Amino acid sequence: MLSSHGFAIVAIVALVLATGYVESYTRVMPPNFREIEETLPRADINYRLPNDTVPQHYDIVLNTRVDEGVRDFSGTVTIDLTVLVETNSIVLHARQLTFESATIQSSTGQSEALTFNYEPQREFLTLSRTVPFAKDTKWKLTVVYSGLLRSDNGGFYLTTYLDAQGRQRSLAATQFESTNARHAFPCYDEPAKRATFSVTINHNPTYTALSNMPKNEAESSNGKTVFQSTTNMPTYLIAFIVSDFKYSEGTFYGLKQRVYSRPGSEDEQEWGLLSGMLITQRLADYYGIDFMLPKLDQAAIPNKGGAMENWGMATYAENYMLYNKENSTIYTQTNIANIIGHEICHQWFGDYVTVEWWTYLWLKEGFAELFSFKATDDAYPEWGIWQQFHTDDYQTALVNDAGNNPTPMTHYVQTPAEISSRYNHVSYSKAGSVLHMWNHALTDKIFQRGLHNYLDANKFGAAVENQLFQALQNAINSESFKIPASIAEMLGTWSHNGGYPLLTVTRNYDDGSFDVHQKAFFNNETIQSDNLWYIPFNYAVKSKPDFRDTQASHYIPNVGNTKVNEKISNDDWLILNKQSTGFYRINYDERNWRLIIEGLISKPYQIHVRNRAQLMHDAYRFSSSKRLSHSILMEMLTYLSKEDQYAPWSTANGIINVYNRYLNGHGDYKNFQDFISEVTQPTYEKFGINDVPGEHHYVKYTRNVVINLACVANNEQCLKETNAKLQEHIDHKRVIEPNVKSQIFCHGLRQTSDKIFDHVFDKLMDSADQTERNLMISSMGCAQQESHLAKFVSSSTDGNNKLRSQERTTILSSAYTRGQKGLNAAIDFLDKEWQAYAQLSSATGRTNPLDIALRDMSSYVVSKEQETKFMALIDKVKGSSYVSTDLELVVKSRIVDNFNWLKQHGDPIMSWLSTYRSGASATVKVSTISIIVTLLMALHRLF
Fold first, then answer.
1. What is the pLDDT of residue 842?
2. Which of 236, 420, 532, 782 is 20 to 30 A from 55, comparing alpha carbons?
3. In what helix (H) or strand (E) does residue 79 lie, and over which residues does it extend?
4. Which residues of 545-582 are buried (b: 16+ CB within 10 A; e: fewer)?
5. 3-class SS of residue 482
6. CA distances from 396 to 486, 535, 549 (A)
7. How far apart are the C-alpha atoms of 257 and 270, rounded to whole Å?
8. CATH class of 55-244
9. 479 is catalytic
10. Residues facing 576 on adjacent strands
């Protein structure tokens, strides 16, 4: 499951994956719905259902008038159950429901009423009688109830859209994972308590009802849709949609698939339908298990966040399913295929085999994350999507899993709030990266056989991690594959240890060997841990730069270190972890770092593209945590003038954006800009600013990264060409290609006339397209002229303009996140209009917009002049009721952090840049060092 609520990423200073102003893929996590956002106490009581009874079959009848916008619904659920332990009561889950009656019927047909009691904290509906239910007896429980369709996209909910005539249309949909099925019907709402389901929905005849299974034509009638009974499945995978949706359909390898969406969007369904059919078959082939239901639907739901893997009927946010050939970008196209891969993988990992409990959430989400890329790569191999896996998942997980107290992949939870907290980078990106590591370490042949074993052994059931380990072990044994310990021992160190290792490589340049030492890595270098892992690794050297075979050639046991007795030439670079498949960081001795830099500068394509990206990523983290000299990273960045691939440029973009944020107020900031302009210029000239039909998929991604970096660095050619293209668009209606539109508007406005800026401003006010409006707001924040910025930020409180209420509190951040001129404009505006801005809360519903803006702005104050202006503003507002009492303390602390960063990192970076600009280029320095080292070694041998 994926959701737009997302998972909180660490502060920008720690996030080297930031893509600046580039539209990019966003990995999103499931939502914390309103009722589970409240922090419940860690259970002194047991939140798990008692195991006295188990369900076999549900018969659900729902009645809705959602076509009229009515939120009320009613239902009857009949559950066939078995009593496992003699008991006087049956306990179910229920949420926000009103109960009318509960009756029980024995196998002989006798029926009686039950008393019912509801416990809100655990959401337990207890149905009791005085005479015990005997062990091993079967019963038919019927509960009649009613409820309200929710408005927060959780449970059984109502949402709306505007049709082509501007009329509001309503529909009902579901989002049950992880604990929301209980909102639609009383049930055993735990993943291991699987059963079969029969669903009937009564609705307006002009609407259509959809569910997991095909319609039962014989039982259905006008306004009554009865569905075929499901296979054995968990409650959280049941789904309903009641709407006026239209569909496209296709059949591939005998499986019928449809894409549903609101009327008028049928022409945007094709890409999702094609990708769904291709990816489903690729996954069936890989797992050796055919798709197990008679149909597979995918539905695009207006206003939905993320996506959900309901068995046989996956649901998606519209922007994750609908693709317009004329206006959608390459990012949208890629995201749709990738997210479809995630949800369809779940049809096997999560649906066919679910998890025994949410403790093992990674056992489904990690596989879905990995196979969102494996399946997309199988369907569209020409894309080279593994570069995006590296930047979006692998590097993100490395950043986020290095905090002070990382949580293991396998981690027990109980309450709804605790369960919700498991939907984070650990269960998704980290688990996917760890599985990716073992996929390569063990070989794809063994991994594939192991997954087939796991799915086949646990089909239509629930599993824990040991069942995966055993399935992989059986595959290893069948191939007589040699590993140093059992897979349960090795993989268990990754599922039960939070965080990940740092490998420190020390070479012996006399005998050619090297030592590898492991310890836990933390962003804060002062934190220590005793955690140790079984670590698979391999390596390549300059004299044999072959990165193709990613099988583990060596293992570091969970005792700390290992020695590799090789005869590596002393002038060879050594790089561990071919293709960066292993989930760890690697630090080398300084001499090897400089040999690597020399290799990058002289022959960068001898080193695999993902290793080139990760070398920068590691060097940045090490320089940020006092483990490595800043000069190593800065010298490494000089090689970028020869780079044209996405993963390295995306990584460099993240690093440069962090540096730019802090250094833009420095007196020698131009040295930094000149350096970035210099290293980006060759690639900028190669790709230009025009989208080229037929070019490689990720060239389009790389072009946008390089345009952003070059223009932010005040590259004259970039500023001139983006402005000219924007002016051609405005003056002569020349179309700007969707893939570069955000870059052209943003950077075309950096140095432009009043006429062009006003045109874009007016276009924002008049546009009815929210995507276009968002682009205009983001672009105008890039402006660098004071008058343009003043007009833009002041629009946030102008009640006479056509800004939508939810847009008004996004204006300032678009400006102040783009540099000191935007920050100064925001400060100047709030100095005069802070009360009007604070009162936007009544129009937008956003709490304390002034307080939120000021806290965020403080993270961008990086000069004494800015600090003086900003703190004067804080003094003006701090006593008001619009801000929190701790505002001054918080912003002062953040500004101190900014200046500490500049002292620790800014000074050495700017010192290196000063030397570099004076003519002592990194290439010359590295080459000279290498020559000197070689001569010294030769002399050593002679004497």
1. 56
2. 420
3. strand 72-83
4. bebeebebeebbbbeeebebeeebebebbbbbbbbbbb
5. coil
6. 29, 20, 25
7. 12
8. mainly beta
9. no
10. 539
How is domain 500-632 classified at the CATH fold level? Answer: Immunoglobulin-like (2.60.40)
Cβ 262 vs Cβ 272: under 8 Å: no
Find where tokens 């995507």 sit. 771
Q: Is 799 exposed, middle or buried (0-12, 13-18, 19+ CB in 10 A)?
A: exposed
Residue 919 phi, psi dihedral angles, 5° rounding: 120, -10
Report the candidate in 462, 466, 495 with the shortest Cα–Cα distance to residue 190. Answer: 462
- Indicate which residue of 35, 343, 369, 465 is catalytic: 343
- Tally of CA atoms within 13 A in the half-sphere of 451 that contains its CB: 27
**Which residues touch 924 (CB under 8 Å, ≥6 apart)?**
none
C-alpha–C-alpha distance, residues 616 and 518, integer Å: 20
626, 901 Cβ separation under 8 angstroms: no
One-letter-per-residue 3-state SS of 502-566: EEEEEECCCCCCEEEEEEECCCCCCCCCCCCCCEEECEEECCECCCCCCCCCEEECCCCEEEECC
Torsions phi, psi of 531, nearest 5? -60, 135
Report the sign of the C-alpha dihedral through residues 215, 216, 218, 221, in that order.
Answer: negative
Instruction: Find residue 160's DSSP bridge partners.
Output: 170
- What is each CA distance from 278 to 338, 373, 378, 931, in whole angstroms? 12, 13, 9, 54
Evaluated on CA atoms 368, 369, 374, 380, the torsion sign reads positive
**Rounded to an integer, what distance in angstroms lies between the CA atom of residue 189 and that of residue 653?**
45
Encoded amino acid at 371, one letter:
F
Torsion of the alpha carbons at 925, 926, 927 and 931, rounded to the nearest 10: 100
Number of H helices and E strands in the chain, helices first, is 31, 29
DSSP letters for 191-234: TT--BEEEEEEE--TTSEEEESS-B-TTT-BTTEEEBPPP-SB-
Q: Find out whether 428 and 369 touch, Cβ atoms under 8 Å.
A: yes
At residue 579 the predicted structure's pLDDT band, cuts being 50, 70 and 90, is very high
Q: What is the pLDDT of residues 137-163, one digit of tens each?
A: 999 999 999 999 999 999 999 999 999
Whether the CB-CB separation of 620 and 652 falls below 8 Å is answered with no
Residue 689, both tokens: 């600013």
Q: What is the DSSP string of 860-881?
A: T--SHHHHHHHHHHHHHHTTST
Q: Can 55-244 and 500-632 be said to share one CATH topology?
A: yes
Residue whose C-alpha is closest to residue 669's, from 866, 941, 501:
866
Is-contact 382 340, C-beta < 8 A? no
pLDDT in tens, 483-516: 999 999 999 999 999 999 999 999 999 999 999 9
Mean pLDDT confidence for 218-243: 98
Rounded to whole angstroms, how far apart are CA atoms 117 and 114? 10
Name the one residue in this structure whose structure tokens are 């402006």. 783
pLDDT in tens, 677-731: 999 999 999 999 999 999 999 999 999 999 999 999 999 999 999 999 999 999 9
- The Cα–Cα gap between 486 and 466 comes to 12
Return phi, psi of residue 879, to 5°.
Answer: -90, 0
- Annotated ligand binding at 747? The verdict is no
Count, residues in the chain: 943
Q: Tell which residue, 481, 274, 309, has the closest CA to residue 379.
A: 274
User: In this structure, which amino acid lies at residue 863?
Assistant: S
Structure tokens given for 385: 């999507």
To the question of whether residue 342 is assigned a binding role by annotation, the answer is yes
5 is in an annotated binding site: no
Yes or no: say if 735 and 728 are a contact pair by the CB < 8 Å rule: no
What's the rounded Cα separation, in Å, for the pair 171 and 64?
10
> Which tokens is 685 given?
């000239």
How many CB atoms are located within 10 Å of the residue 884 CB?
Answer: 14
Q: Is the peptide bond before 229 cis (omega within 30 degrees of 0)?
A: no
- 8-state DSSP, 394: I
Distance CA 647, CA 654 (A): 11
Model confidence over 537-556: pLDDT tens digits? 999 999 999 999 999 999 99
What are the residue ranges spanned by the domains of the chain?
55-244, 500-632
